[in-house]
Amino acid sequence: MISKETLFALSLFPYLGFLWFISRSPQMPRLALYGFYGTLVFVAITIPAGIYAVLHYGESLANVDWLHGGAELFLTLSNILLVLGFGQAVRQLQMKNEK
Fold it and tell me: How would DSSP label each residue in 50-96?
């Protein structure tokens, strides 16, 4: 059976492919694209934070509130960018259709 760590590492490849394709789409709202890239920042922050939690506290990241909250902040920011980007795109489409 595949370990969760291996599965996590392998899941990055399809996501990188997804980012490659949407980066080339002129229809992709830029702000939302930054949100999708922000998810990679979240992963890049979470991995060392998880290692630090285990080495320094002997706990998983989920059990060290200040580290977990700090890492989740990057996911929250990514989600905000996604919502703002797609919201802006919807408003632009609505204005275009009203003309």
Answer: HHHIIIIISS-GGG-HHHHHHHHHHHHHHHHHHHHHHHHHHHHHHHH
